[in-house]
Design brief:
359 residues, homotetramer, five-stranded antiparallel sheet, alpha+beta, 18 strands
Chain lengths: 359, 359, 359, 359
C-alpha cells in the first residue's frame, strides 16, 4: 500500500532506488507563484551530498536536480512539480555479496519478507539516498515558508558521548556551516570531528542527535486531535532513516518535572501575548502558539561497518557479511539538511491547512 | 481542516467535547466478522475512567459505551461503527473562570487564536476526555489483532524521578493491574503511589513515562518510506494529550552507541530467522521483523494545578487563574490503556495494509 | 476498507443502518464561525422525510436531527460535528422474509458476498435511509456556501416518459416546493403526480431525472487533473442510491455536436469576462468559470415492488420475494434535497480547497 | 491543493505539461511481483499516440515510456514506479498567439484565474497529453487485473450522429483494432471514418461516445456508501479531458422504466448465482455482482477548430483566436485506450481494497 507520500495539502511522493536510474519527488499541492530554480535546490542538496567533507562517505554523486514539470519561467504554476536527481556513481557490484545475505540492522530481511523481492543494490529503496528527494522538495517548502518569515535551523547537538555543554546556550548559529560536523559550538565541533575520524579509523560508526529550531512560526498551525503539529513533526522525523527517537519542548525531561515548574505563564509584552518560559516548545494543544518551536532527533549509528559480521541468508544458512560499499562513519552532519527539509515540509503543509480554520 | 481522523484503512474519527453531550468515535474500515459487545469495550474504558482509584481525578463518569451502528448480532458487519459515550458529570460552572482567561500550558490560547471561538468548558475539544473515544476504538483494534496472536502491554515505567531499577528487567507483567499506578514492579509501584499522593497534597502534578511492549507481531508491517511502522507509532503516541517525546528500541541511548555494539546479528533458531539482540526494537527499515516491538512515551506534568497562576485574558489584560475543576495529579496510570489503544489502532491499520504488499 | 467518507477538507463520514438505533454523520473540517441550529437542519430533512406527501413511502419517521458535538452557542467551532438522527419506525419484522433470500436489484446479494454477514433489516447499511445523514451535513455546507452567495437548486426534470417541454426553459423555480413532485413546471408536475399514483396503484415503481442548477459559483473551483469539479460532482451524484447516470453542461447531447456550434465564445460584459453560450456548464478544464453550473442525474425505478418476484436464497435455492415494507413508487421527489446536499458538500469542499491555489 | 492523484491503495500521481520536458506518472501502492517491461507499456501508448492514423492529430510523438524506478529485473518491487514519457515535438511557437488570449471552451481562462499564472504552451497542464501518463499506469493495472482474469474492452460507440445499429448487439470485439476509429462494427466504422474526414475538411471537430465492457470482474468490488464501484468509475471517466457524461447499466434509459421491467431476477445457473437480465450493469449497491460491467462515456467535440473565433484577452479586450497547432478532428478513437486505462486503474484499486472486507 502507498507509503511514499507525505503531507495532506502540500503533498510529496518520493520515488527511486539507490542504484537505479535516479531518485526524485513529485510535489502536488504547491501553491502557484513561488520563485524556484534548479540552483536554489542545489544549495541544500550540496549540504546533504556524499563526498562533501572528509568525515562523510566518499561515494561520488553530484546530486544535480532537474525540474521536470510544474515550474514555468522560474515560478511554480500550481501543478505537480517533479524533481529528478540522476544516480551517477552506481558501483552495483559492491553489493553482490548481499544479494542473498541479510546485512545486520539493515532492511534487507524485512523487505525480502514483506515484498518477496528486493532490489538489493545498495539497499535499493531502503537506502538513505532517498532522502535527497526530500531535501529537494524541502527547498520549495522553505521558499513558501519564507514568505511568512518562518526560519528553520537544524544543527548537530551530540555525537556519541560528546554534546554541546549547557553553559553555551542559547546558541549562536553563525558557525554551523563553517565546520563539517554542522555543530554551532566550534570547540565542541572540533571534538566531534576528531571523534568521528577516530571511529572511522576503527571501521566503526557512531550515533548522534540533531536538534532543530523554528523561528517566527505563525500562531495557529496544527490540526487537533491527531494531526497535532508536534505529532506530524515527530512522524516526519521518525520517517528519516536511522532515527530512533523524537522529543520537543521539555521532552523526556518533562517526565521528572512538576506542573508548577513546567507550566509556561502567559504574559503581555508590548501588546503581544507570549509565554515567560517555553517548556511547551512553541506548541500547545497541538497548535503553534507563536513562540519558538524546538525539538531533538536521535540517530542510531550507521549499520554498515567495515568489520565482518555473522548473519544468515534467505534460506537461513549462516553467512558472513563484510562492509563493502562506501558509507558514513556518522550520519548526523549530513542529516542536518534532511531534518530541516522534513520540518519545512511539515510546516508548509500545516501553514496551508491553517488557512481553512475559519469561515 | 480535518485532523480528527487517524489511520488509512482501519480509520477512526473521534468527535465530542468535555462538557457537551458526550464523546465518541466512528470506525470506518473495520473488517466484517469481528465479535464485539459493549461489555468488551467497557473493560478498557474502566481502566481509563476517572475515579477508578485514589490517585486519579474524582470526576464522576461511568463512561458507558453505546454501539450505535456497524455491529449486528454481536459481530462487525464491515460498515462504520459509531461508539458513543455520554458525558454525565458536567460541572460546567467550574469553568466560568476560564471563559476569558487562558490557563497556562493549556490549549485555551491556541484554540481561541486558531478558530476565533472555543467551547471553554473543561477545555472543550482539547480535553483529554477525547481519549476515551480512542480507547473504545482500540478495543475493536485489539480484537482484530488477537486473531493474529498480537499482544500489546503498556505499563508505567517512570513517575517523576522514580523508575523501575534496571536489575528488574525483563519485567513480569502479572501485577500491572494490581496496583493503581499500573507499574509492573510492586516495590516501585508503591513508591510511585506514595509520591503521587504527596504531589497531590501539594496541589501540584508530576510527569512520567509509559512504556509498551508488543509481542507476536507478524513480520512485514510498515510501509516505507514515510509510513514506517515506528513513525506511525510515534505519531500516534505524540497525538495523545501531554506527550512530549517518543523513542523505540535503543531510542535516545543509541546516539551514544557504536555500530559494532548496536547492530543486531541475525541468527537461525529452529528454522526461524531472529536477531540475537534487539536494539532495533522489532522494526528494521520501518518494517516489523518479528521480534518484540518496544517503545517509551514521555508525559509532561498535568497543567492544571491547585495553585493560583498569573496569566492574561483575551484582551491581553493580566488575569489570575486558579485550579478549579477536578484533575489528575499524575496522568500516566490512566494513560496506560490510551497508549495501548493507539498502539492497537496503528497495528490494526498496518496489519490490513500489509495484505496489499504482494500480488 | 473505508468508503463512508466523502470530501477532502470539508469531509463527512456517515454511519448507521435502516433499522438500527439511527443514522448520522460526522463532519470534520468544517470551518469555525458558521451559524447553525437543529432547526436549520430539520428544514431540508423534512424535504427528504418519508410520509411528507401522498406519493412517497408512508414509513413514519420524524427524522429529528440532534447536534451531538462541534457546535457551541449556535456556531461551529472548527471541531468535528456529529449529527445523529434516531430511527423511530423500525418494523424490522417486515424484513424477516429477506433474511435469507436476495431481493432483485437490491444490494442483499453483494453485501452478503462481500462481507459474509449483513444486517438484512430494511437493507441495513445499503438502505437509502443513509442519505438523510447526507442531507443533514449538506445543510451546513449550504450555510458555508451562502457566505459566498452560492445558490443550489435541484428539481424534478423527468418522471418516466414525462419531461418538462423544452419551450418552458429557462425555468422559474418559484413553484418547486409547491407540488409534491418538486417539478418547477406546474402542468408537468400535475401529470407526473398523476402518473406516480397510477404506477403505485399497479404496485410498481418508475424512474426519473433530477436536474440541478448552481448559481453564483466563484471562479476557480476544481482541482485538475483528477479532482475536476464536474468529476467530483459526478462521483457525488453516482454515490446516491439508484443513480445510473450523470451529465453536465451539454452532456450526452454534445456527442452529436460539432466544435463550431459547441464552443462557448468569451465576451466582456461590463468588465466581466463571460461566455455567450454555456455548453460548458460553467466548468472548463475542470474549473468553474463563473457561469451557471448545471447537471442532470438519472434515477432508476425503485427496486422494491409489490409484486412477487422469483429469486434465490444464500444457498442458491429458488425463493419467492414479495414486496413487503413501505417504499416509494418514485424516488425523485425525495431525491431533490439529496442531490442538493451532495452538490453543496462538493462545492463546500472545493471552495475551501481553492483557497490553497496561490501563495 | 493536490488534484493529480487518483486511487486509494493503487494510487497514481501524474505530472507534466504538453510542451515541457515530458509527462509521467508515479504509481505508489502497486503490489510486488507483477511482470512489466517498457515494451508492455508501449503497446497501449501506441494506441493513444498522435499520428497513428489519418484521422488523428499529426503531431509527431513517439511516446516512448521510460521506467525510472520501482521495477527490478522486470518485476515490480512494491516501491513507487515512475514512468516518464519525454516530449519530442514541441512546436511551442505555435502557441504564441494564445499567450494572452483565451481559446474558447479551453481551460486557458480558468487556469489563469485560479493560479494567476499558466504555462500557455499547448494548454500546458490542461492538455490531453497528460492522459498518456494514465495510459502508461493503466498497463500495470491491467497486468494486475489479468492475474484475476479481468478483461477490459473499450470501443467507439458513436461519432456525431452515427451509432452502431441496435441489431448488431451483442458486439464482436475482434475487429476493434482493425479500423482507425476503433468501432467493433466494420460497416459503422467505415461511415464514422468518412464522417470524421469530412468534418476535418471543414476545419471542424465532432463529439462521440466510448463504451466499455468489463468481463470476469470478481464479486465484491466497491466500497459503500461513497466509493461505490460505479461512482469511482464515473469519477475516473469524468476526469478525462472533454468528457461530459457517464452512465452505466441501464443509464439514462432507466429513468423511463418501471421497476417490474428493470429488476434483474436472480437465478442459479450450474451452482453460480447470476441475474437473468443485467440492467444493473454488473453492480448492485455499489458492489460488483459478478455479471458484466458496462458503461458509456460522452465526449464533446474538440474545442480547437481551424476557424477563427472571437474571444477576449487577459485584460478583457476583444481578441481573435485562430486554430493553429495540430489537433484531432474527433477525440474518441484515441480515447479508447484512455477509457480502458482509467477503468483498469479503478478496478485495480478496488480489487486491492476488497481484500480488506473480512477479518
Amino acid at each position: 500500500m502507498p507509503g511514499s507520500t507525505y503531507g495532506q495539502v502540500f503533498r510529496i511522493t518520493t520515488y527511486g532506488e539507490s542504484h537505479g536510474k535516479g531518485i526524485g519527488v513529485v510535489i502536488d499541492g504547491c501553491p502557484a507563484g513561488i520563485p524556484i530554480t534548479e540552483e536554489d535546490i542545489a544549495i541544500d542538496l550540496d549540504r546533504r551530498r556524499p563526498g562533501q567533507s572528509a568525515i562523510v562517505t566518499q561515494r561520488k554523486e553530484s546530486d544535480t536536480p532537474h525540474i521536470m514539470s510544474g515550474v514555468f519561467e522560474d515560478f511554480t504554476t500550481g501543478t505537480p512539480i517533479n524533481i529528478f536527481i540522476p544516480n551517477e556513481d552506481q558501483r552495483s557490484k559492491d553489493y553482490g555479496h548481499i544479494k542473498d545475505a541479510f546485512r545486520p540492522s539493515h532492511a534487507d530481511f524485512t523487505y525480502q519478507e514483506k515484498y518477496g523481492i528486493r532490489d538489493y543494490r545498495g539497499g535499493g529503496r531502503s537506502s538513505a539516498r532517498e532522502t535527497a528527494a526530500r531535501v529537494a522538495a524541502g527547498v520549495i517548502a522553505k521558499k513558501l515558508l519564507s514568505h511568512y518569515g518562518v526560519i528553520i535551523t537544524a544543527y548537530v547537538d551530540q555525537v556519541g558521548h560528546i554534546s554541546i555543554p549547557e553553559e553555551n546556550y542559547p546558541l549562536s548559529f553563525a558557525t554551523i556551516e563553517e565546520n563539517p560536523v554542522r555543530c554551532p559550538h566550534p570547540e565542541t565541533a572540533a571534538k566531534m570531528e576528531a571523534f568521528i575520524k577516530e571511529v572511522r579509523k576503527d571501521g566503526d560508526t557512531v550515533g548522534g542527535v540533531v536538534s532543530c529550531l523554528i523561528q517566527n512560526c505563525p500562531i495557529g498551525l496544527g490540526e487537533p486531535v491527531f494531526d497535532r503539529l508536534h505529532a506530524d513533526l515527530g512522524k516526519a522525523m521518525l520517517s528519516i532513516n536511522a532515527v530512533k527517537g523524537f522529543q520537543y519542548g521539555s521532552g523526556f525531561r518533562s517526565a521528572r518535572m512538576r506542573g508548577s515548574e513546567h507550566n509556561d505563564l502567559f504574559d503581555n509584552i508590548d501588546g503581544k501575548i507570549v509565554t515567560r518560559t517555553n517548556n511547551s516548545g512553541g506548541i500547545q494543544g497541538g497548535i503553534s502558539n507563536g513562540m519558538e518551536i524546538y525539538f531533538s532527533v536521535a540517530f542510531k549509528p550507521v549499520a554498515t561497518i567495515v568489520m565482518a559480521q555473522e548473519s544468515v541468508d534467505k534460506d537461513g544458512n549462516a553467512a558472513l557479511v563484510e562492509g563493502k560499499g562506501r558509507h558514513d562513519p556518522c550520519v548526523v552532519p549530513r542529516a542536518v539538511p534532511i531534518v530541516e527539509a522534513m520540518a519545512a515540509l511539515t510546516l508548509a503543509d500545516h501553514l496551508l491547512r491553517a488557512r481553512l480554520a475559519k469561515v
